[in-house]
């Protein structure tokens, strides 16, 4: 029985799940937090047990070594050779990578170089790839790109109305994100409905602290809300989403800013739900405050829901129809209130949410029996999609 890792590295974190394959059973999972900072946290869960340690973890290399040692100490594995595959989530694949790819030195260098598209992620991901290849030299290793699901959108949907040479010379285009999640829930929705995803039009709503919506037609992404970077599209936890670019020099002048990076930092880290509510980037906190009568919290909720409604309506038009709408990720999966508010704004094309069925955080069809459009709640599982891609490429 082979074991496969799904790895998700960030600038100061390392999330992981270890599967028995091809059974797809999770035998260990956890996260390493605050890498490179004081009081780093190492967590591992297995056999209904949880171990958490606070210690200094200065680099991703040390984090990987701790993880592999923990697997042996807890007898989750006896030898590292049991791990035959590793799939690494990569945020930005740019124009270079339009599908999951086997790793070698050149591919890792290219992923590192694409760091200008995702500076907080790609370079850390490349570092972990190098360490993993040292520790597990016999394992099949691949990169699974957040952008690859969107890579083959029609040009009319991924190009910006800028001078065309900005695309040909600088690869300035819409790339999107959350592709692994959108792909998983679209295919799972088709399975739940007993249909072929190739015959369906599905709108997938990945609503979390980072949020995006995708139009999936025939099993392929044809348009998505995030853009050149994850800053575009919906209002998010701390990101502003769509904005008129002309407001940037206006605000920089008013704020006395001279470095565009300071303004971009505000748009990425101080805006969105946090900026509007003045309270929190966590939707749970904002919902509580709204229930207590906080007007700005309620405004933040209304703005978020309104933008979700607008994008769903836009993508019904893009595909000239829709068969199913799927909610997923932290807010989408866990906030019946958000799902209810969004769908109540979309009754015009026959979508009806069932109030009782909607009271769930589990996988479920939550539309009424008479609804013309299926509405589903599906917890995302990006990790199993990564593990499946490892097995697919390993078998090739």
What does this entry look like structurally?
The chain is of the alpha/beta class and about 400 residues long. The chain contains 14 helices and 14 strands. The strands form 2 sheets. It has an 8-stranded mixed beta sheet with strand order 5-4-3-2-1-6-8-7, with helices on both faces. A hairpin with a 4-residue loop joins strand 1 and strand 2. Helix 1 crosses helix 3, helix 2 (about 105-115) packs antiparallel against helix 3 (about 120-135) and helix 10 packs across helix 11. The longest helix is centred in the last third of the chain and has 25 residues, at about 295-320. The mean pLDDT is about 90.
Give the secondary structure arrangement, pairings included:
Blueprint: E1 2-9, E2 14-21, E3 25-33, E4 40-46, E5 49-55, H1 60-73, E6 83-90, E7 101-102, H2 105-113, H3 122-135, E8 140-145, H4 155-158, H5 165-170, H6 179-192, E9 201-207, E10 211-217, E11 220-224, H7 247-255, H8 260-269, H9 272-277, H10 283-291, H11 295-319, E12 324-328, H12 329-334, H13 336-344, E13 364-365, E14 374-377, H14 382-395
Parallel strand pairs: 1-6, 6-8, 9-12, 12-14
Antiparallel strand pairs: 1-2, 2-3, 3-4, 4-5, 7-8, 9-10, 10-11, 13-14
Helix pairs in contact: 1-3, 2-3, 10-11, 11-13
């Amino acid at each position: 029985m082979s074991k496969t890792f799904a790895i998700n590295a960030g600038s100061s974190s390392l999330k992981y799940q270890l599967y028995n394959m091809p059974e797809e059973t999770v035998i260990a999972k956890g996260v390493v937090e605050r890498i490179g900072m004081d009081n780093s946290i190492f967590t591992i869960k297995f056999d209904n047990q949880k171990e958490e340690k606070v210690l200094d973890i200065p680099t991703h290399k040390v984090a990987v070594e701790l993880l592999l040692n923990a697997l042996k100490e807890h007898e989750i594995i006896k030898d590292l050779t049991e791990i035959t595959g590793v799939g690494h989530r990569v945020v930005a694949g740019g124009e270079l990578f339009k599908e999951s790819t086997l790793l070698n030195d050149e591919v890792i260098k290219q992923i590192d170089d694409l760091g200008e598209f995702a500076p907080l992620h790609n370079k850390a991901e490349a570092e972990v790839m190098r360490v993993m290849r040292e520790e597990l030299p016999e394992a099949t290793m691949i990169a699974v790109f957040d952008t690859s699901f969107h890579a083959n959108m029609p040009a009319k949907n991924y190009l910006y109305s800028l001078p065309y040479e900005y695309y040909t010379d600088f690869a300035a285009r819409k790339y999107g994100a959350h592709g692994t999640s959108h792909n998983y829930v679209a295919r799972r929705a088709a399975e739940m409905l007993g249909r072929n995803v190739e015959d369906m039009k599905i709108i997938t709503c990945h609503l979390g602290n980072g949020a995006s919506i995708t139009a999936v037609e025939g099993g392929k992404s044809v348009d998505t809300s995030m853009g050149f970077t994850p800053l575009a599209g919906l209002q998010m936890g701390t990101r502003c989403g769509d904005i008129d670019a002309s407001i940037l020099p206006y605000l920089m002048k008013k704020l006395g800013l001279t470095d565009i990076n300071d303004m971009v930092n505000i748009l990425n880290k101080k805006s969105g739900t946090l900026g509007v509510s003045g309270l929190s980037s966590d939707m749970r906190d904002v919902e509580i405050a709204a229930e207590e009568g906080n007007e700005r919290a309620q405004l933040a909720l209304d703005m978020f829901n309104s933008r979700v409604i607008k994008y769903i309506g836009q993508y019904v038009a893009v595909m000239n129809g829709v068969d199913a709408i799927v909610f997923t990720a932290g807010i989408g999966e866990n906030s019946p209130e958000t799902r209810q508010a969004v769908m109540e704004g979309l009754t015009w094309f026959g979508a009806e949410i069932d109030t009782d069925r909607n009271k769930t955080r589990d996988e479920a069809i939550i539309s009424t029996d008479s609804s013309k459009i299926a509405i589903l709640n599906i917890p995302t599982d990006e990790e199993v999609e990564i593990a499946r891609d490892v097995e697919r490429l390993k078998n090739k």
